[in-house]
Design brief:
mainly alpha; Arc Repressor Mutant, subunit A; three-stranded antiparallel β-sheet
Length: 135
């Protein structure tokens, strides 16, 4: 049975505007910045360099392993630098690179949009769920 509801928001792009390499780049970037820990780590590091345990405390419920994996991914993508100081015990600081700092603006804008539109999205979900129950 087909759904009689109208499909909205679907844009058909001319085939010359759809580039597989461009789609791949966007997918990879969204995979990096789309996880909640990346966004939170970038936001916390927006205040300046932090040590591992400072980051962990600021983030709350993140596990040591997940923070390590997130920082490695951010470092690999050139968004974070890791500086080891030769002290005993060794001190390691994490800091946003220039590229990482450039991510702060769109991440902050997305967070602001989410806060501003949360109530509308929740209301839309309730309407949708109610309509689905009635179907």
């Amino acid at each position: 049975m087909t759904n009689p509801r109208r499909q909205e928001g679907t844009a058909l792009l001319p085939s010359h505007l759809h580039e597989p390499e461009g789609c791949r780049a966007i997918s990879e970037l969204l995979a990096r910045v789309g996880d909640k820990w990346t966004v939170l780590v970038v936001t916390v590091l927006g205040d300046g360099p932090k040590r591992f345990n400072e980051l962990r405390r600021a983030l709350g419920s993140i596990s040591q392993r997940m923070l390590t994996l997130t920082l490695r991914g951010l470092e690999r993508d050139g968004l974070v630098t890791r500086t080891v100081f030769p002290t005993i015990p060794p001190r390691v600081d994490y800091e946003l690179t220039k590229l990482g700092r450039s991510l702060l603006e769109p991440v902050s804008a997305l967070a602001a949009w989410a806060r501003q539109n949360r109530a509308a999205i929740l209301a839309a979900r309730q309407r949708f769920d109610a309509a689905e129950k009635g179907s």
